[in-house]
Each structure stands twice: as C-alpha cells, then as structure tokens.
Amino acid sequence: MSKVRIYTLAKDLGVDNNKMLEMLDGLGVSYKSVSSTIEEDTVELIKQLLAEEAESAPAAPAQTADAAQAAPQAAPAPADAPTPSPAPEAATTAEDTGAPHRAPVVTIMGHVDHGKTSLLDYIRKTRVAAKEAGGITQHVGAFEAQTSKGKIVFIDTPGHEAFTTIRARGANVADIAIIVIAADDSLMPQTREAIAHAQAAKVPMIVAINKVDLPQADPERVKTDLTQLNLVPEEYGGDLVVVPVSAKTGEGVEDLLEYISLTAELEDLRADPKGTFSGVVIEGRVDKQAGVLATVMVQEGTLHVGDFLVVGEGYGKIKAMTDSAGGRIKEAGPSTPVQILGFSEVPASGEQVQSAKNEHAAREVIAGRAQTRRDTEAARERRKLTLEDMMGP
Ligand code: GDP
Ligand code: MG
C-alpha cells in the first residue's frame, strides 16, 4: 500500500468520513474530497491517533476526537471527582447533536437522449423491491432505491420538470444532482443548463458519463470539456466526482450509488420525524377511478392518514397514502415520497405543503393566503391607476 483514498481508509478503519476529514484537518493535511488519496505516512498517523483514542475511551470508539479527549477516565481519577462517572453519558451527548439522519433525495438532469430515463429505469429495475403480484407500478414522480449503504430517493419527473423539482419556490427539493452526459456526445446545451441549475441551487453535483459501452464513447473528451467550464474532475486534480456508467449494461451504476451515499454522508442530511410537517409537491394528476392523486415529498415531520394539508389556496384531508412502490401506508417520515388521495384539486409541482390541526385551521390558513393575494392584486391595480393618471388622457 502506498497511497489510499480517504473513504477507503475510513471504511477499513470503521470510522465515518466526516471524522476522517476532521482528523486530517487536525493533522494539517490538505485534500479535495473524500476520494482524494493520502500518503502512507499520514495513514500511519491516523492509525496511531485512533489507537490512542481507543485506549483512552475503550467503551465508545465511535466518539469524535474532541469527545474522546474530554472523556472522564482518560487520566487517573482526579481528587475532586470521587464519583465514578459512567462513560455512556459522553456517548449520548455525542449523538444528540441534532435530528436523525435522512435519506438523500437525488435528481437526474442532462441533455435529451443522454440516458436519464434509461439510468433511472436501470436503478429502479435492480434496486426497488419487487411488488406484490398483481400490482401495477404507477409512475408517481419519485422512487426509493435500496442500496448497501441505505435508501436513496430518486426524483423521476420527465424533462424540464426536473428543473422545478431541484429548486421549487426558493427551497431545494433535491440534495444531490446527477448530471448525465453521453460519452459519445459530450456537453450539449441542456447539459450546460442542468449544470447552471445545480450551481444556482448550490446542490452538490456528480457527473455520470453514460453510454460508455458504445465503441465511439470518449469519456476523456467529456472530462476535458467539463474542465473548460471550470468543473475539474478529481483525476485532473479538481473536486468534481465523475463516474463512467452504462445504463444499458449496468456498468458503473454500483459506483454511482456509492458516490451518492458518500456525498450524502458529507452533507450530513437530517430531518426530525417528530417536527412540524413540511413537504413539497412532486407531481399531481387525475386518475379516472381514484380522482386527484398527488405525490408529496415529506421533508420534515411525519404525515398520517387523516391529516389536513394546505397547498396554495386549497386544502385536503389525507384519505389514503401509498408509497412509491404502490404499497398502502399509514404514515410517512422525512425523505419519503408518498402518493396522497384526498386533495380536491390537482396541486402544482413545486408547491409547498403544510399541515393544519383540523379543517377549521386549514380554512383559516387559506383565508389568510387569499387575503394576502387580494391585497397584492389591489395594490398592483392602484399603482396602475396612478400611472395612468400621471400619463394623462
Ligand atoms: P433521456 O432523453 O435522457 O431520458 O434518454 P433515454 O434514456 O431515453 O435514452 C436515449 C437513447 O439512448 C435510448 O435509445 C436508449 O436506449 C439509449 N441509451 C441510454 N443509455 C444508454 C447506454 O448506456 N448505452 C447505450 N448504448 N445506449 C443507451
Ligand atoms: Mg427521458
């Protein structure tokens, strides 16, 4: 072993990537990202530090370096601390830093025909648990994929709607953007547009160079073209993660999923399932039999059948919910896309969804919103009249 990637080392030593980066910072070692490589000397230092830490706090190896230093039994019992304080307390405080982790929400963007749909289909086919016999998989605008690193939620809205779901009404829906670029076509207008959207939303990007199975595939050209946009792939010394894949053969897809999980881990995504509910509409439609159906991404809190929801100037009571695989569910926590039956009108994609205690509260929120809208309209009308007055007849 000479050089080793940071995330590989973290995995081998059983510590999380953030902790590994903290340790490197502590040692003054510079790196671009978790996939940067570090020297053997540094690896040895890290191992030493971890061994020392394990000695001073044998009960809780997963603590952060700081917590370990502060652990009580590091030194022989000080005179002013006669009570034998147990270690578990330190361990609890280290974990109680915030809400629990949640799964990453990923959007796939790129130029037409570069393979967005094919890539999503491949992931869905290989990573979504088969449904019970007889069920028809409906397209609901999002799905949950199971990977060895946990759940990843993919937004699956066609074409240009992907842009509205990345950043809707000023808030991000997606945590990570996958930019798909065909290896035989390289950067095209909609690729640049997708990159611009991800940058504007400040969402981390991962580039998937697709169609590498084609004989005319030229992944190196894609990387050079990206560099022209100041997006420098890691192999060229930059910090852009670029993964060669084929949606046709499945090559590289496992790596892509792994990079998504790594990026998510670094983003430290959290949401409180016990907090106030908030969500966003992914898509809505009218079903001939069921009526209005809307897919909502739960961002914070938990939804339950029977809850009242407010969207724009409309509201609804959840009559039934299904998960993205079509199974009936009674409740749904953060980073879960759910299809909801109970809205009276089709809500628009990107609309924020809030909950209300009861129907009365829902109506009050809507009345308030309607009033604000009328006030704004009236003010606009007055400005127009004043302008006409000034211009004269
Ligand atoms: P989208 O417009 O970005 O959603 O692209 P599609 O997924 O519809 O793919 C466009 C075309 O490229 C289709 O004919 C796909 O079969 C083909 N395609 C997609 N991915 C691959 C791939 O990895 N290898 C090859 N050879 N063809 C692919
Ligand atoms: Mg498509």
From TrEMBL:
GO cellular component: cytosol
Keyword Disulfide bond belongs to the record: no
Main localization (coarse): cytoplasm
Residues in Tr-type G domain copies: 101-274
Biased composition (Low complexity): 56-78, 88-97
Gene Ontology MF terms in the entry: GTP binding; GTPase activity; translation initiation factor activity
Sites where the protein binds GTP: 110-117, 156-160, 210-213
Stretch forming the signal peptide: none
Cellular localisation: Cytoplasm
Region (Disordered): 56-98
Region of interest: G-domain: 104-252
Keywords: Cytoplasm, GTP-binding, Initiation factor, Nucleotide-binding, Protein biosynthesis
UniProt family annotation: Belongs to the TRAFAC class translation factor GTPase superfamily. Classic translation factor GTPase family. IF-2 subfamily.
Function comment: One of the essential components for the initiation of protein synthesis. Protects formylmethionyl-tRNA from spontaneous hydrolysis and promotes its binding to the 30S ribosomal subunits. Also involved in the hydrolysis of GTP during the formation of the 70S ribosomal complex.
Name this polypeptide is given: Translation initiation factor IF-2
Organism of provenance: Deinococcus gobiensis (strain DSM 21396 / JCM 16679 / CGMCC 1.7299 / I-0)
Gene designation: infB
Full-protein interval shown: 1 to 393 of 598
